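S1.2 Input.
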Amino acid sequence: MRAVWAMAAKDLRLLIRDKADLFWILGFPIVLAFFFGSIGGGGGGRRAVMPVAIVDEDRSVLSRSIAERLRGSEALKTREASYDSARLLVRRGDLVGYVALRPGTGETFGFGADSAKGVEIGIDPRRQAEREYLRGLVTAALFQSMQGSFQEGGGGRDQIRASLDRLRGDPGVSAESKATRERFLLSLESFLGALDSAQTGGGFGTEAGAGSGGGMGGPNLRVVEVAEEDSGPRSTFEVTFPSSIAWALIGVCMSFATSLVQERLTGTFLRLRLAPVGRASILAGKGVACFLTAIAAVTIVLAIGMAGFGVRISNPPLLAAAVAASSFCFTGLMLCVSVLGRTPASVSGAGWAIMLLLSMTGGGMVPLIAMPEWMQAVSDFSLVKYAVISVEGAVWRGFGWSEAAPALGVLIGGGLLGAAIGIRVLRTDRS
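S1.3 Output.
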């Protein structure tokens, strides 16, 4: 074990002396986080299809119509889910948001209902650019469904009359409240009937519906950010700093990979093997040095985010596990990348190509939601994605251990696979 620590100490001293490597490990990730944090929050151009869940708890004619229209939207990729499952999927980052048609939506046609009975839109706090876009799609689906219900055979008038009968026979509602809600339902019936008469088969947009109706106002759409209480990113820096750890890990990985091939090229690796130090100790020492450097680099990046940019930590023990698992993963990748060539130039070229691909598809450069659908599917194969998600879960997503376990498992498995490949090649190498 003393030999392992001696090898690790040697590599750490060499790293500290190399100012260029230190910049790529520490300086570049911080610059990247600051840059994207400063310009974050905007967006434009063609949108990717948004994956959302539809939760129909009302099971009324209107709610089924709204759900069907949302499923038919080319801008959405929908799936059915329960309310709790939908919230969990959004918190994990698997979905942009959900649309919950709460019980009572059909009674009031989405208008004038309290927050527990209206239409609820849950959104990933990182996806602010999609917030109003999704609200607009839901509003359009609501108005189109309302119009359809007042056309022949739609049953909209019957629903309003049934609501009026229930209201008038409810002894638990005060006379004042009963009068107000009765006026609203009668106004709604008149409004929708007028729209039905005015329209000749064409739909109508959200602006017309929201601004009409004798002071009814727009539909009651409750938008909530899906995260644990007192969580969710307070600024774009809480999103960009976890993403920037990918660059810290990549910098550490490539620095140690090129140093290992350099030692093989110059004969240092061979001389160490001829010394009374086993091959396993040499590789273990290199791995320990890489692992410790990765932990230090990620910790420093996050510490700067906390001290200078208000990044908060919601689950410190989980963050420690995420940092350790991510560091272990990229240590394994380091051993794998180091055998991709016989010269520092070849290893650097191949390694950076792989790392940039992992970063681009894993959310290290472009947010996952801004990617085309096919690239979002490819991101499941990027280890960078799981490193970012695991750290985000501990920083602001409010993940518990069960929610973080899949990402941590992928990171550990990726590290083991990379290390196994690298060690196997190095053991058979005769140089």
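S1.4 Remarks. The longest helix spans residues 279-309.
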